[in-house]
């Protein structure tokens, strides 16, 4: 439950801290005192849209902190999902500034607004005029029925969702394969591409080697003439080559070797040079022989380069990319090679799932219609007690399509609209078109009372649920609101003295003004001041002689009712 609410710099509130109790907490006050500010502040810290205009004039930031205790299992599960530790209490805090900054935290741990809203949705439910509008929106009616019949409907929805997920999965597989015609077409194309690339038998680095070969062939004449020229210098004309000169030098040195001991060493070195030069000369001859221009080799080189260029235009910017593409399409080919069989298998599976989904949709719809009938009985019972004995209420469901026109839907495909008539002899029509403001307030109170214990939320906030209500009906509304507070904490802003008299804790909202500012404050009333406030709600100071005794009587009557249901 909400144990404490701290507000700083929101509208007329400078700084306010209020401690709420279990049971029925009533907030009342003069019109314009700032009751809506309390609700706006609570809505803000629970994750509703931030409105910078709420920041108190002259301030740059506004902050609201809410402390909840007696944390439910639902809230604990959400906290565990987000790895937020919680012991006995939970602190929600949210700040906004004029420059647009929005800071949220849970137990002093920074969170996103989405996380804050998820957690807050398990803590408190605020019912005000905007919820009236929501109740008129038929898109919410099915959610109400599902919540009411949750024990039966929730497992059916889970099973239906599993079937739907399987159906979507098999549909996606079929999309991946395509139709049988597309499968065969894709196989033919892939087979052609695989053959074209495979037959080319491309090697990494091959293109660079081909370019080098072509360059060499294009310069073969220059290479051959240079090699021959160099060979001639070594071993060409007998009178003008290095080997002849070297041989002459060796013969001359041999003649004088007996006169100089070092000549023998020089002769050995010259012999080595002669052997090396002869080998070089032979190599030059071989190179010249091997570098003869080969037109066939040249044409093969050009054709190979042309083939690689063609494959690059189709399949990649390099041989590496082309080979990588080959691996990819080979896997795809293997995947599609049994495509016809797979497509038939998946189509049979989809047909089977479609039948199951159709049956599941009918079962889910039957459960919803049963829950709606039961809800109608309870709503009518509550509305009768709320002074509407002749009203009619039921739920109109759209007819389910025949199987041939069936299209699966995650939520079961039901459309539900609440139908209502307040007067005897009048047919029930769409709720949003015929219900008045006072009737809607009673309808929503009846609905909230019925489903109060179904959502696992421990705090309910009613913002002026007394709209359009007075007299005897006001007393019944007060009792029913108190009935809800026996199982949940209820915060209610009201103008009804009957409801105010039922309070377990009563707060008076006051607005005070000074020369420089206006502020809203909250005062917890004691027994005496409660009588004065209920008196004011009954008739104000002008009728105090009547109102004060009436207020005491109303409070006594409320206490008798509380005692009777303990």
Note down, in words, how this protein is organized:
This protein is α/β, with parallel strands linked by helices and 566 residues long. 57% of the residues lie in helices and 16% in strands. The protein has 20 helices and 15 strands. It has helices at 35-45, 73-81, 113-120, 129-136, 141-148, 150-177, 180-200, 206-218, 220-235, 242-255, 263-290, 295-315, 319-337, 339-385, 431-434, 437-451, 471-485, 497-500, 527-538, 544-564, and strands at 2-10, 13-19, 24-29, 61-69, 89-97, 102-106, 109-111, 124-127, 392-397, 416-421, 429-430, 459-463, 489-493, 505-513, 518-524. A 6-stranded antiparallel β-sheet has the order 2-1-4-5-6-7, with helices on one face. A 6-stranded mixed β-sheet has the order 8-12-13-3-14-15. The protein has a 3-stranded antiparallel β-sheet with strand order 9-10-11. Helix 9 packs antiparallel against helix 11, helix 14 (339-385) crosses helix 16 and helix 16 (437-451) packs parallel to helix 17 (471-485). The longest helix has 47 residues, at 339-385. It is elongated and about 160 Å long. The two termini are 20 Å apart. The mean pLDDT is 86.
Structural class: alpha/beta
Rg over CA atoms: 46 Å
Overall mean pLDDT: 86
Count the DSSP helices.
20
In total, the number of strands is 15
C-alpha geometry: elongated
Spans of at least 5 consecutive residues with low confidence: none
Distance between the termini: 20 Å
Largest sheet, strands/sense/barrel:
6 strands, antiparallel
State the strand order across the main sheet: 2-1-4-5-6-7
Helix content: 55-70%
Strand content: 15-25%
């Amino acid at each position: 439950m909400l144990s404490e609410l701290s507000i700083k710099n929101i509208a007329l509130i400078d700084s306010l801290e209020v401690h709420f109790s279990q049971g029925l907490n009533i907030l009342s006050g003069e019109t314009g005192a700032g009751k809506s500010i309390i609700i706006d502040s609570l809505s803000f810290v629970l994750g509703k849209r931030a409105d910078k205009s709420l920041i108190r004039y002259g301030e740059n930031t506004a902050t609201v902190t809410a402390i909840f205790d007696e944390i439910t299992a639902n809230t604990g599960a959400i906290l565990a999902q987000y790895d937020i530790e919680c012991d006995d209490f939970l602190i929600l805090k949210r700040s906004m500034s004029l420059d647009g900054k929005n800071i949220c935290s849970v137990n002093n741990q920074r969170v996103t607004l989405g996380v804050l809203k998820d957690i807050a949705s398990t803590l408190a439910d605020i019912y005000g005029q905007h919820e009236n509008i929501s109740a008129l929106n038929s898109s919410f009616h099915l959610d109400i029925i599902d919540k009411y019949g949750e024990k039966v409907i929730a497992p059916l929805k889970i099973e239906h969702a599993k079937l739907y997920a399987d159906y979507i999965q098999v549909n996606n597989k079929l999309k991946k394969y395509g139709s049988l015609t597309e499968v065969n077409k894709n196989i033919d194309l892939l087979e052609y591409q695989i053959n074209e690339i495979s037959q080319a038998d491309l090697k990494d680095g091959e293109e660079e080697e081909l370019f080098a070969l072509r360059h060499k062939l294009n310069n073969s004449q220059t290479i051959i003439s240079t090699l021959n020229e160099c060979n001639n210098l070594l071993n060409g004309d007998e009178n003008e080559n290095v080997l002849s000169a070297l041989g002459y030098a060796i013969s001359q040195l041999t003649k004088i070797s007996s006169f100089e001991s070092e000549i023998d060493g020089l002769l050995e070195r010259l012999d080595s040079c002669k052997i090396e030069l002869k080998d070089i000369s032979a190599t030059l001859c071989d190179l010249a022989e091997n570098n003869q221009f080969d037109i066939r080799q040249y044409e093969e080189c050009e054709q190979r380069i042309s083939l690689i260029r063609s494959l690059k235009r189709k399949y990649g910017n390099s041989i590496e990319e082309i080979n990588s593409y080959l691996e990819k399409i080979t896997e795809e080919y293997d995947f599609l090679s049994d495509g016809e069989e797979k497509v038939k298998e998946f189509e049979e599976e989809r047909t089977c799932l479609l039948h199951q989904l159709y049956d599941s949709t009918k079962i889910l719809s039957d459960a919803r219609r049963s829950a709606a009938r039961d809800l109608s009985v309870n709503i009518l019972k509550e509305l009768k007690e709320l002074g509407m004995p002749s009203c009619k209420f039921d739920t109109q469901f759209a007819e389910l399509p025949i199987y041939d026109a069936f299209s699966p839907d995650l939520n079961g495909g039901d459309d539900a609209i609440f139908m209502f008539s307040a007067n005897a002899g009048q047919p029930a029509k769409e709720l949003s078109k015929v219900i008045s403001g006072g009737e809607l307030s009673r309808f929503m109170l009846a609905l909230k009372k019925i489903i109060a214990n179904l959502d696992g939320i421990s705090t309910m906030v009613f913002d002026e649920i007394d709209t359009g209500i007075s007299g005897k009906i006001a007393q019944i509304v007060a009792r029913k609101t108190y009935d809800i507070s026996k199982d949940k904490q209820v915060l209610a802003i009201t103008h009804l003295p009957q409801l105010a008299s039922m309070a377990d804790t009563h707060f008076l909202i006051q607005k005070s003004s000074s020369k420089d500012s206006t502020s809203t404050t909250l005062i917890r009333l004691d027994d005496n001041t409660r009588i004065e406030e209920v008196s004011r709600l009954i008739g104000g100071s002008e009728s105090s002689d009547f109102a004060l005794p009436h207020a005491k009587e109303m409070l006594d009557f409320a206490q008798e009712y509380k005692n009777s249901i303990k």
